[in-house]
Each structure stands twice: as C-alpha cells, then as structure tokens.
C-alpha cells in the first residue's frame, strides 16, 4: 500500500486524501468516482501479484455510498460521536500501549481498537 502512488486519489478529508481503510484481512478502497476506483483496483491487484497475493474475486464487492461527506450535510453530530468513540477506545488501551516497546505491536493495537471505533463508530 505504501508503494502505490495514490496521493491524489481518494476523498479529501481535513486537507489530506483518504484512499483506503484496513482492518484484519479486509481493505476498502475509497474513491469519488468509478474511473478512479477501476484504476486503484487494477494498481492494487498488480501490487498484490508482485508479492504473491491475489484478490479473491468471489468476495470483492463494489459499493456506492452516494453521499458526499462534508460538513454541509450536517454530519457534525456523527463525526463528533465517532471521534468520542475513538478516544474512548484509545483510553481503554492507552495504559497497555505505553508499556509496549514494540512499535509494530503498538500500531497493531491502535489499528484494531482505535481506528475501528473511528471508522465504524463501534465500541471495542
């Protein structure tokens, strides 16, 4: 994912482009239109092939939200709720994370707890 040149792809959030989300063995590609989605999927499939992975086409889905995410759509309460859920999830693991020296393990804990709460607003 780091080697793909997607800096200008995705949806602009707070001045930066958000182009993918990761959780466990799932990856969500985020694009504003179908043309960019096709490009990203082709590049992602190519990158996977280079390291010996492949896309499971029986589980690959195309989904459309259709709602532009911006503050004019009145999303402030939802974004506030998600932010609060993420901070709550982080506070639950903060003590453990501070004691762990392994950076990868710390990042994994953050990804599995805090990012899940932020993106899905689920409590962990």
Features:
single chain; 124 residues; mainly alpha; 2 domains; two-stranded antiparallel ribbon; 11% strand; globular
Structure description:
This is Reverse transcriptase domain-containing protein. It comes from Haemonchus contortus. The chain is mainly alpha-helical and 124 residues long. It folds into 2 domains: 11-69, no CATH class; 76-120, no CATH class. The chain is built from 3 helices and 4 strands; from the N terminus they run E-E-E-E-H-H-H. A two-stranded antiparallel sheet has the order 1-2. A two-stranded antiparallel sheet has the order 3-4. A hairpin with a 2-residue loop joins strand 1 (11-13) and strand 2. Helix 2 (76-99) runs antiparallel to helix 3. The radius of gyration is 16 Å and the shape is globular. The two termini are 26 Å apart. 6% of the residues are buried.
Describe this structure in a few short sentences.
This protein is mainly alpha-helical.
Largest sheet: 2 strands, antiparallel
Total helical elements: 3
The tally of structural domains comes to 2
Q: What's the helix-strand series?
A: EEEEHHH
| Tertiary shape | globular
Quickly give the structural class: mainly alpha
Terminal Cα separation, in Å? 26 Å
Question: Beta-strand level of the residues, as a percent range?
Answer: 5-15%
Mean pLDDT: 79
User: How many strands in all?
Assistant: 4
Spatial strand arrangement across the major sheet? 1-2
Rg over CA atoms, rounded to whole Å, is: 16 Å
The low-pLDDT segments are: 67-71
Protein name: Reverse transcriptase domain-containing protein
Organism: Haemonchus contortus
